[in-house]
Amino acid sequence: MNQLKAYQETAVSTANKGRLVVLLYEGAIKFLKLALKEIETGNHEARNRYMIRAQDIITELNSVLDTEAGGQIAENLRQLYDFMYRQLVQANIKQDTAKINDVIRLLEDLNESWKAIAE
What we know:
Oligomer: single chain
CATH topology: Four Helix Bundle (Hemerythrin (Met), subunit A)
CATH architecture: Up-down Bundle
């Protein structure tokens, strides 16, 4: 287990910026899928923990946007991240799987685009 953690930390610390964005999207998607499973099992504490982790990732993605360098694309991403964050807050309160799935689809679409850029 320690070797896996060391590998993951090394992979993150040596990745370029595009690859880091991909890793963040993948993390948010993973946490949201885990939250969906916890909704099915009725484990509210775990669901909330996974939802908050996904929200934290989206907040981080939003906070590092450079709107001066990124222009309109960065502004559009900011609006999209704000929308996703609000959806997840509501989904967490109401245990709304449809909203979670909508955000997962958005993240997957963005992730595919970033993968094409990063590789």
